[in-house]
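@channel sequence for tomorrow's demo:
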Amino acid sequence: MEDLFKRTVTFIIFVLAQVVIFSRIHLFGVAIPLLFVYFILQIPLNYPRWGAIVWGFLMGLVIDVFTNTPGVASASLTIMGLIQPYLLYAFYPKDANDRRNPSVKSMPVLNYVIYASLAVLIFCLLFFTFESFNLFNFADWILRVVTSWFVTVVLILVFENFKR
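structure tokens (generated this afternoon):
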């Protein structure tokens, strides 16, 4: 019950931060900080897969409602909730406690950076592909993916550093 309450409070904080602050930032007209994906990255390895998928869908649905991106965030985060345990399993230390949230403290720093970078890259690819729904303007699409990926990863690492 405590875990559900803690996740719900974290959920609300990330939604508010994304809707009020980060959705209004468009660095150089292309890069959007998508910090809400960090919520999904923090799900522990032993968490039920259906739980990660449901949290991803709910987070995406709320973001979609408040940012007017119909189905884009919910589809992207639902897929992230589905693949997050597999990504985490690839980089999480085999002898570590499965109940801890993935972080720089619970994982080797390089493993965490690769895990977060790869997960955010997959999310950005999904998000901007669903948003544009075509690849006719490939240069614009790749620019948005790469810049948003970079800004989001930097924000996640800064947030992790402050959390320590």
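heads up for whoever presents: The chain has a mean pLDDT of 89.
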